[in-house]
Design a protein that fits this description.
nine-stranded mixed beta sheet, five-stranded mixed beta barrel, 21% helix, 8 helices, alpha+beta, Alpha-Beta Plaits, 424 residues
Length: 424
């Protein structure tokens, strides 16, 4: 293995190596990059990327993330990179066949070694909708090496989309710490006091705990190898937050860790806000999920708020026909819009109560005789008082789910209010 020669940039992408009940693609990627760095003197990982994609993608597991890395290596060492990638995929196949549960969906992994840039449009297609495996596979250039354990691996879509992502000013960072093998399947030792203290000392970190429940959000709830994932706006503060946790007695020591640039809380999966008029009373089904019909001026659609969406669900259930609302959400394969944010721009009048006279509610005086005050005899036409509902909140009327129930891609309101009809 040579350490001399002309260096070139390569891009490595990986997706779909995990099972719903075990393993994690981030940990597999860590294994691969560690092996490449340790085995090839000229190999250098410049940056890792963790990219969340379309939440409704079929055959996805958990947060639907794919991995990519920008690396450099001497051109003369590319054959060594190729050999290690092949060995990695062989080992992964043995692991899947020998240790993964027979129940549930088997992964369909794909590892890409790209020598050329991919079109950024590949990322936008995969973060905002379903991408055909057949079409994407045909788009992969001949200069890319594809490693898989089957002919048409589902992971090719995620791996190629992660490589194609072009970070911008909205990107954030996530540090992932992994557990040693002997710790997997045991409770994670990360105290709530440690998480709270970290949040106070490192203010650019986010989504550490759910303020409505106090539950920590940096630890997964599955049997995967991840100890925790800390998300932050600042790369430098992220590493300091991790070091802060690792020196505490109430936090489990990690086996290894790495920082990834991410598209989380970017709203990249959304096209912007829309406006419409409520055309039906809300329908609530068993479990607390609610829906309402909307007329946009050119089409009718159904907005859905799940019980877990908290304030969004509560606001939707207060809507009445005639209310003008604005929302942001994701159109599901069934064409319903799953809400992520909602606000009332203008409320229609609500029926209140009968008029009051002499401190008492006026009563009907009989058929065709209007209302009459029984105390003073004053009469008026029959009418109901109306009122306008108040929907104000700290974010100019916008509401969103609590942190534990937001999508990884959803941008919190505190990071900036939605932009109307931000079509891109």
């Amino acid at each position: 293995m040579s350490g001399t020669g002309v260096k070139g940039v390569i891009r490595i992408g990986l997706d779909d190596t995990d099972h719903i009940d075990c393993a994690c693609t981030t940990e597999h990627f860590q294994r691969l990059l560690t092996r490449l760095n340790d085995s090839i003197v000229s190999f250098e990982t410049k940056e890792r990327r963790l990219v969340r994609l379309w939440p409704f993608a079929p055959n996805r597991t958990r947060g639907n993330a794919a991995l990519a890395a920008i690396c450099s290596v001497n051109i003369v060492d590319l054959n060594n990179v190729d050999s290690i990638c092949r060995e990695f995929m062989d080992d992964l196949n043995k692991e899947i066949q020998g240790t993964y549960p027979d129940t549930g969906q088997k992964p369909s992994p794909c590892l890409l070694l790209a020598l050329d840039d991919y079109p950024e449009s590949w990322y936008w297609e995969a973060v905002r909708g379903e991408v055909s495996l057949k079409v994407r596979k045909k788009q992969i250039p001949d200069s890319t090496k594809i490693y898989s354990i089957e002919h048409n691996p589902n992971g090719v879509v995620g791996a190629s989309s992660a490589i194609a992502w072009n970070p911008n000013e909205h990107n954030t960072w996530e540090l992932i710490a992994w557990r040693s093998d002997d710790k997997i399947n045991s409770p994670r030792e990360v105290s709530s006091q440690a998480i709270e203290s970290m949040s106070e000392n490192f203010p650019t970190t986010f989504a550490n705990r759910d303020p409505t429940t106090g539950r920590g959000m940096i630890m997964p709830r599955t049997n995967c190898p991840v100890l925790y994932g800390i998300r932050a706006e600042s790369f430098e503060e992220l590493q300091s937050a991790h070091e802060f946790l690792q020196i505490r007695e109430d936090v489990e020591k990690c086996y290894s860790w790495a920082i990834h640039r991410t598209n989380q809380i970017s709203d990249d999966h959304l096209l912007g806000s829309e406006i419409g008029i409520v055309s039906s009373f809300p329908l609530e089904v068993q479990g607390g999920h609610s829906s309402v019909s909307i007329w946009t001026g050119y089409s009718s659609m159904t907005l859905v708020a799940f019980a877990e969406s908290g304030e969004v669900n509560a606001l939707l259930r207060r809507l009445k026909p005639g209310d003008e609302v604005e929302w942001m959400g994701l159109s599901s394969p069934s064409s319903e819009v799953h809400l992520e944010r909602l606000r009332v721009k203008t409320s229609s009048p609500r029926l209140g109560k009968r008029p009051v006279c002499c401190n008492k509610t006026m009563r009907s005086a009989g058929v065709g005789q209007g209302l009459r005050c029984k105390t003073c005899g004053h009469s008026i036409e029959k009418a109901w008082q109306t009122k306008l509902e108040s929907f104000n909140s700290q974010h100019k009327g916008w509401v969103e789910p609590n942190p534990a129930n937001r999508r990884h891609l959803a941008k919190p309101l505190q990071r900036g209010l939605p932009t109307e009809n931000n079509q891109t």
